[in-house]
Each structure stands twice: as C-alpha cells, then as structure tokens.
Fold this protein.
Amino acid sequence: MVGKLLGHSSSPRKAGEEEGQREKPYRRFLVIAAVLIGFTIFVVIQLIRWQVFQHQQLVSIAEAQMMTQNTAYIPVRGDILDRHHHLLAVDIFEYSLWASPQEVISNNHDIGKVIPQLAPVLEMTTDELTNALTSGRPYVLVADHVHQQIWSAIDKNQAVLNMTGFYWEIKPKRMYPEGPLGAHILGFVNARREGYFGVEGFYDHKLVGKGSGQPTSDENDAFTDLYQPLDIRPGSTLVLTVDRTIQYMLENELILALKTYKAPSGSIIVMAPKSGAILGMASFPTFDPNHFMDTSQDRFANPAISQQYEPGSVFKVVTMAAGIDAGVVTPRTTFNDTGRLEVGGRLIYNWDRGSNGMVDMTVVLGKSLNTGAAFVSTTLGKNRFYTYVRRFGFGRLTGVDMAGEIPGTAKLPGDSEWHESDLGTNAFGQGIAVTPLQMLNSVAAVANRGQLMKPYIVSQVIERGQVIDIKPEVIRRAVSENTAELVTAMLVQAVENEISQAYLPGYRVAGKTGTAEIPTLGGYKSDETIASFIGYAPAFDPQFIVLVKIDKPHTSQWGSKVAAPVFQRIAEFLVDYMDIAPDTVVLNSR
Amino acid sequence: MSSKPLLLFHPRLWGHENQQSSWSVNAKTATGLVLCITLLSLVGWLYLTQASQIATIESHMQESISDIEKLERENALLRYQIAQLETIPRIQAKSSQLGLGPMHRKATILTVPGDFDIAEATPVGVPVGSKDIVIAAPFADIQSSFSLPSLLELWNEVKVQFETWLGK
C-alpha cells in the first residue's frame, strides 16, 4: 500500500516513460514532506489551542490544583484521653493566609472586585485587606488564626474568589475541650508547639510526633517552612488513668471546701493504692490551658507534685509503721504520756498541750499524740527511723510521669541542717517537707500491704495503632505485710473512735488527720495551718486512697473539722461510682 | 566561478543524463523513512499518553491525599466539638432542663443464701492471724450501724426520683 503510494511498484517499467520515472522520486519526496508538514501543522494547531484559546481555562485548573495542595507540614500532636477514652486534649487546625501582592495584582485584572468579596469572609474590612495587599512587601500575612470553617468557606469558593497569589499555611493548635478540668494534670502546649507541665511536658517527646520543623513567627521566613518533610508521623495518643468524672467531682468538692472553710488554696488526690494509678488530682488555684497566655505563671506548676509542705500528724502513720515493722512497738505497747517529751534539748508537746497518762499505740495514733510519735521515733533511733523515712520515699522523687515533680526535703543525720531534735519533730511531721503526692503514696504503701508503688498517670500509649500498656511498678517494700495490716487496723480504729467526720456507714475506713503548722523564718505561723486528711476504703481491700489538703482555712484550723468531711463526701461518691460493695456485704464463710 | 545555485526547489540533472536529482528519493528509502516516522510517532504517542496518564493519576492522588487531609482536619474539629458537647457541666445543665436531678446514694440489698451461716461468717479481708486486729476492729458496730432500707423506703425513694424527673 505504502509502496504503491510512493510509486514503488514491482510491475516492469515501459520504455519511453523515462521522464515519468524520473518524476516519481520527486513525488515520493513530496509525500514525505506533506506527511511531515501535516504532522507539524497538527502540533502547532494543538499548541495554539492550548496556549491561546484554552489558556485561561488550563491556568485556572492548574492554580486550583496548586491551591488545594496545602499540607500541614507540622505533625499532629497526639490526643490525650481519660481512662474511658473521653477526649481531654486534641489538635485542631487553624490557618494563616499569606499573599504575594505582586502575584495577586498581576493575576487579577480587577483587584477591586476581589477585595470586597474576600474581606467579609475573612472578617476584615476592605481597607485592612487593601492595605495588606498594597504594602509593597514581597509576602504579607493577610490573616492569622483563621478558623477552619472560614477556611472551608473560602476553599469551596476558590474559583469565584480567584485566590491566585494567596497561600494558606495550615497550623495545628492544641485545644482542651474540657477547659480547666485537670489543667494541672495536662499542662499546656505553647506557641512553639512545646509541651509544658503535666503530661504535655513529661510526654512531649511522645506526643510531638516526627518530622516536626520549628515554625517561625517571622513573616519574612514564612515560606521557608513550606518545605514539607517526607516522613511526617503524628504523635502518640496517651490514655490516662484519670477518670474525668472523678476529676470533675474532686474539683467541685475542692472549690466548695475552699469556699466553706474560707481557704485560698488546696489539693485533693485520689489514687488506686494497689496499682499507684492516679484517678484524679485537683488543685486550686488553677488555670484554663486553652488560655494559658492570660494566666499568671505561678499557677502552672501542679501543687500536688511541685509544692512541698510540712505534713503534720498524717506523718505519724509512717512513724508508727516504722516502729511496728522494726519490732520496737506493737499496737498494745504502752507509753506514759505526761504531755511533754524532750528530744535533743527540745520539748515536744501534744497538739492540745494535754496529757493522757498510760496509753497504747492505737490510742497514740487515734488521739494523734505528738509525744507518742516522738516516743516511737526515739525508741527506733535515728538510723532506723530515717532508713524507714527513705524507704517510704521521702526526700526523693516518686517518679510520677508528670513534669515538674520535686523531691521534697528530708534532712538526714549527718546533714548540716539536721539536729537531734529533728528525730522527735519529724516523727509527727514537723521539720520535714513533702509533696502531697509523696505523702499520699507513703500511706498508700501501708494500704497496699507494705508495697510502695510508683504512682503513674498514663496507662496506655497508642503508637501508630499499637497499644503499649504501662504496668504498675513496685518501687520497694516499705514495711512487711503484717505491719501494714496492723497499722491499717489502728487507722480504722482512729476513724471509728476519733474522726467521726470521715466515717462511712457500711465501710471500714482507715485514715489519719493532719494539722500542720506553716513554717516561717525562725518559727511557725501562729494563726495559719494546713489541714489535711488521708484515708482509704474499704480498709482491708482498698480500692481508693484520698488525700485532702486545705491550706490556711479560716473557719477552723483542724484537719478533722476541715479535711475529714471533704474526704467523707468524696468517699461516699467513690463507693457509689466505683460500685464498691459495703464491707457488711462482702462475707466469707469460715 | 560555478553557476550552481545554492538552493534548488526543483530537481535538476547534473553532468550525466542518468544521474538522479539530489531531491529524488528511491522507493525503498522512502518506505523506510515513512515507516520510521510512523514508528517514532507511535512510540512518541505511547510515551506521551503514558506520561499524561501518570500525571493525571498523580494529580488525582494528590487531590485524594489533600481530601484525606482535609477530612482529617474536619474530623479533628468535629471530635473537639463533640467532646465540648459531652462535658459534664453541659450534660448536667441539659439533664436539669429535662428535670433530672442528682442520684441519691445507692441502696445495697443483702441477699443471703439459705444455707449460709451468718453467725460463722467473717468479713473478707480481716487479717485472721492477728488477734490484736480482730479485737480492735469494731465489726459489730459497723454491722449494726448499717441497716437495710425497707421496701417502703425503697418505694419512697423511687417516687422521689420519679417526681424529680416529672419536674414536681
């Protein structure tokens, strides 16, 4: 066929047709040229069609594609959930609209139409937008912190609005849907996406994800961040041991208590003593992590782990446990309380300056006798007493997984500041500084049959779909199981006989009050105390342990009057909420 | 000086009569050329078609990724908004609008199996080995202080809850 068309025939050539034959190669050349020219014409026509007639249409498509390719180049921070997977912290997105004024003007022949359309959507005046676009700078920040809904409205109407020359920068923003609930537990994330305080601070490396660049606030450098790392991974999700309902109840009870007793501050912690899992941790004054910029910095630190105080009589639990465990006293060991006792040249008195005569150790704990506690510590001797103090975790970090924990101050024999009289005063919680969590954890060791647990607040880390469980961790055995049970029984009696405000019908509650004086330079404040109570229930199978600490109450200064009733209300709620059967129901036939 | 023109638009015969003009192409060469052009065009067309398809697919993929990211962002906002709607203060406010009030303490009803010897029973968790504790712990007091609600009391409790719900 092709051969025929080109004159390539197999038929014999006739004489006399030489001229015609000479013309054939020329025809072939014409055919080839025609094919090539035709092809070229086709290509040229197609190019003209694209470049001239469909130019605007194709440019619009290309620009629309460019505008939709706004990718968040900062990895999403992991969520924080409570134990029932209620959302406590999440990243949402906000947008910054940048513009290249030169590009905007050169691509919009009628800029006067674009500005009135765009300005109201961005919640700006036309003057503001005009000023931004005529600033003469190569790139300008037109609008910052644009809400996702506004962005969506603009995104859907890109073709109408003609967004050529505008660029979106997408930035995640940390939000806390429950507002101030659990603020001290959670902490916050600053403008540079760094976690501070609480879980945000402690687990920043897990939450932050991978592929993160440091966003800059300098608008001239903004476009350097448009580079997108190839491997962006979102941060891990954290599941807390905290129950938001318990947390909410604790915060309400704390605020109510502070109002009732006219106190400026306080803390409440609820923990599962068998595992060390923190179920709730409330402190006041607090803050809203959504608006941390508007809050005074001194509110950020969690007082439950970052503030130390002299615990007062609740420390007698530790002293008594140490005495019984070392075998120097038993619950029935008697002591003649004359109302005062000299230790290291310092006279120790009871809280009411009274004397009780011959009393046993159960009464010492029940009536909270300072002299009795000093009797135990001096009988133990400084070496053994302070060994137990250290064994219960005082003077060192508990290791809780929250940022900002401090170790407290436990002076030891040999330290320059330690004095012989400290052996007596430390026994009833004076001259030793602890954090509320440390104090709670030490009593929790008694509740947990002598095992000191490491308190923890994150129960699961979810990394790319893989769930990593965080198991309870035993730090060490503080006292023997038998000692712990004996002390628990003594604490049950203390509640039954002396602290009716903490009594819970149907349940045996073990607990101890504390009324601690507040140290000043060279002495103690005469009119201000820290009222506290630590209790756990059911005493012999404890499901929760609660610390209530009210600072400087004005209506009454005593732990039994101020902190114990708060404990009672919390315990009443917890036994219902946690479905804990009364002790009278849990029966076992011998 | 030669009189040979630089450019010819018509074949001319030079020297011998039988010599073919420089523009002339023999049939074999012409066929080869056409085949080459056709083949190259075909290959070019295939290459361009595939490149175009790849570009289109990549563009669709980019669009899909962009859509996924957009949906993820919308999802994050929705989750945040749902969590805000689920906060306890809001649920409390809504439930009080519906006439629901706080729950009273749970009543625990004791059901003792017929063959269970209560006299020989002891609460679980008591450290049996320690006489001190058994003597010290006031179990009897606790048991006597905890009385079960009567059926009438339970009925009254249900009535109170129902009336609260009705908004009386």
